[in-house]
Amino acid sequence: MTRRTFEYAAVPGFRPLLLDLHRGDAPGLAPLVVFVHGGGWRVGSRESFGPMFADTSPSPFERLAAAGFAVTSVDYRLTGEAPFPAQLDDVSAAFAWLRDHATELGLDTGRIVVWGESAGGHLAALAGLREQGVVAVVDWYGPADLTALDTDLAEAGLVAEPAPGSTEAREALLLRDVAPAEASPVTYVHSGAPPFLLLHGKSDRFVPCAQSRRLAEALTAAGADVDLRLFDGAGHMWLGNPGLAATAFDLSLEFARTHCFGGHVA
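Below the sequence we write its predicted structure tokens.
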């Protein structure tokens, strides 16, 4: 497997935006997984698949490459650098760069799976609903309806930290002057949406699983395909259920294979 790093965008006044591309040695055009990291939109980097995979070997990127995918993981501007929609704009810029360089890099940009966890799941869902060539979306416990996030926390008996309405709340730092609906994947669901796999722990104290339910309901109402899996005893990042990270990855890999290769491949 090879790993190469590229600068996909240079936004004046900001750090260079980088992506890593992992791929195996198989000839021909490879379907593409675009991975978007989490971190509450405030922290994180393209090098992380999430803390639950920090010490795994082979890494998730290596496993995806071994399964026949080209895998790219993208950095994007964090909320300390710029508010929404900068994060989504950066992910879209990465898509554009990958399309422009698809031939030289051996990428099949007509078979793209966009995959993200937490804040990255939110951005992956948004990108999957607007980008061309996306054949599937994998969203792990991402916020889906920012207009209802505080309500869902309250109904689950949880309190946002910092408190709802605080200018330091993660949504406030993301949105600044943007209306919550404008940054919510549920707003952009349409009948032509690609298939979605939504995985969420029922004990998530940061993004209640009601958020994934809301997105699943919107996709179903639009006539799109969605597979919602809710897991008992699992919190955010699969905390409380140590074996679930591996299960979630295996389910997601098989979902990606099905929609890129038409079924299981070795």
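The first strand starts at residue 2 and ends at 9.
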